[in-house]
């Protein structure tokens, strides 16, 4: 795996009047990695992707792809990129095959049979001669994915690629992305399905209110302090008692359980027992991406 | 890349059902108009004592070769053809925004001006098909009428190379109306605005403008000859002369050179504005 940066944004901003949709986004995507671009709805993910793809004019900042600046007036580096942003862009009165053939027509370097191959890969070979306008949402997503992969791009940019797909479809896409990553294709994926992102991404950037609040390798983010989870008769009472335990933080009562960070399970059990509360169950585990994401976006919103 | 794009855009247009519906409507419309004309002229010829010159003129409009010129005049930019071309251009151009197919090409590194140029150039194909459909439909029905009246088609009076040029000239007169609608579609991104704006100009605004300029007297009155409608009339009048129809009047019209350049100027003006606006547009969800 090479560590050169394939996609970089610096201080990228997009203002729509008084709305600061994207406010100084700086991210870098190394070659060969799967990069997860996370953020709640309206955080500016799609707008950022729109600027990366030359569809939107940035208010300020820059986008660099393969070492070359991209603007709506200069999009040549995008020829090495495949993209699926939001709803797939399809010609509804053409069949799936005809849609792909139109795209293939622009790329004379594609081998014969590539259209059939890609239809097979995304599982649309049986529906190849049906009009795209009659497809279900999931099938449209598959066709959109096929169109983005047709010319064997070096960088794949996907915005919510599994939208509208059934669990089997999502599983297929996940596998395809993993295979692509194994073949050295860099993948930039925006998704709100954090479990999905956690399974396939090497690196993530978290966006909130148009700003990047953290960026790093998934392993580093998940390798934070262990979470101790105890089952007690009264989680609210236990949470109150744990506030006096030194080093204990992120105390969250949740039903019959309380989760805490920053201390060992032995310390938690000893502290609660000394206060007359005996836990009936104790477990420890690492934070998952979802809890990290929720924590980051919640604390950022409070600060904001 | 431009030629590949143009070919792609042509394929997209030709595979659209809407194009074939429009062409069918044109064919039916022309057939009906010619049949109504025939009925009216037949009644006129048999009912009253028509002067010989009027009788000849009336017959010329429904028999070959004059009928072909009549059909081409009917399908010109400032007439029947302009209306259908405006509807087609408005729908084809603005739907690209709602279908997000523009995003498809742009996010693959196709330069914006090239994409817009290719999409405009591809509209020449439906313009040509509109004229040819009218000519074929009108040609067939008036051939039958000609046989019925004259027992001949007067093929000896036909100049087929001039007929070919007339088709090109007539197609050319559609372009400024198409370019105006194209511009309205790009600026509004709406089929309703583009089509209604284009139709309003063809049916209403241009006529009002001509009336107003006429009332203002010289020198503003001279501007009338530079409006797309007058320029189109000038070129369509050439069709009559070319196919050998007598009595073609060019009074009040400019020269063919001015007409050709004027139509090109209007077309390039609206195309240029479309390119300029498209270059600055944000294409979001």
List keywords for this structure.
heterodimer; A: 304 residues; alpha/beta; Rossmann fold; Alpha-Beta Plaits; 2 domains; six-stranded mixed sheet; elongated; B: 285 residues; mainly alpha; 79% helix; 0% strand; globular
| Main beta-sheet annotation of chain B | none
Helix and strand content put the structural class of chain A at: alpha/beta
CATH topology of the largest domain in chain A: Rossmann fold
The total number of structural domains of chain B is: 1
Terminal CA distance of chain A reads: 38 Å
Give the CATH superfamily of the largest domain in chain A: P-loop containing nucleotide triphosphate hydrolases
| Range of strand content of chain A | 25-35%
* Poorly predicted residue ranges of chain B: none
CATH architecture assignment of the largest domain in chain A: 3-Layer(aba) Sandwich
Mean pLDDT of chain A: 87
Class from secondary-structure proportions of chain B: mainly alpha
State the strand order across the main sheet of chain A.
Answer: 6-7-8-3-9-10
Major sheet of chain A, described briefly? 6 strands, mixed
The tally of domains of chain A stands at 2
What amount of the residues of chain B lies in strands?
A: under 5%
Enumerate the spans of chain A where pLDDT stays under 50 for 5 or more consecutive residues. none
